[in-house]
Design brief:
5-formyltetrahydrofolate cyclo-ligase; metal-binding; ATP binding
Length: 195
């Protein structure tokens, strides 16, 4: 029996929510070690990440490590006028935060802090699951698929890199025509590379 996308979401979210606090903490440290070996990192100045929710891999240690490396970090904000789209705002220790409609923390909208997505070097994407060919299963809103579409069509612009727990990997996901596969996904134990 083949699982539906919704079944995969439910199953994988359950698995990652079963991780203990100790396992979550260790994964957040191990992801920094793996991420630090990425060849793209040397030339990357502007990096979009996200703040973790719902059992996602905790990104705070990675963000703080990137600050120590002199990198600028940005977080996604749900676009207030363009439905289903994201803006990216500069993020540091002093950024005022609010909760969006999904109860995820994001920077308070301030147009002076927006960076056009094309000026980002890397976009680290959250995901619910991924498979052995680099396909990503998100929460179903399509925000990142829309954001990454120009890169997928042209090969230019910010490079997407998925971040995930090892338990979020499955052999094969059901794919839709709008899904954007990722060239790399970093987990605490390895870097999956389809380039």
């Amino acid at each position: 029996m083949t699982l539906s996308r919704q079944d995969f979401r439910k199953q994988i979210r359950h698995q990652r929510n079963q991780l203990s606090n100790e396992a979550q903490y260790q994964a957040s440290i191990d992801i920094v070690t793996q991420f630090s070996t990425l060849t793209e990192l040397a030339s990357a100045k502007n990096i979009a990440l996200y703040l973790s929710a719902d059992g996602e891999l905790i990104t705070t240690p990675l963000i703080e490590w990137l600050w120590r490396q002199g990198k600028k970090t940005y977080l996604p904000v749900i676009h207030p006028f363009s439905k289903g789209h994201l803006l990216f705002l500069h993020y540091d220790h002093n950024t005022p935060m609010v909760f969006n409609r999904y109860y995820i923390a994001e920077p308070k909208l301030d147009k002076t802090q927006i960076i056009p997505a094309q000026q980002l070097d890397l976009i680290c994407t959250p995901l619910v699951g991924f498979d052995s060919t680099g396909h990503r299963l998100g929460m179903g809103g399509g925000y990142y698929d829309r954001t990454l579409e120009p890169w997928f069509k042209t090969g230019h612009g910010p490079k997407p890199i998925g971040l995930a727990h090892d338990c979020q990997h499955v052999n094969k996901l059901p794919i839709e025509s709008w899904d954007i596969p990722l060239p790399k996904i970093v987990t605490p134990s390895q870097i999956w590379d389809w380039e």
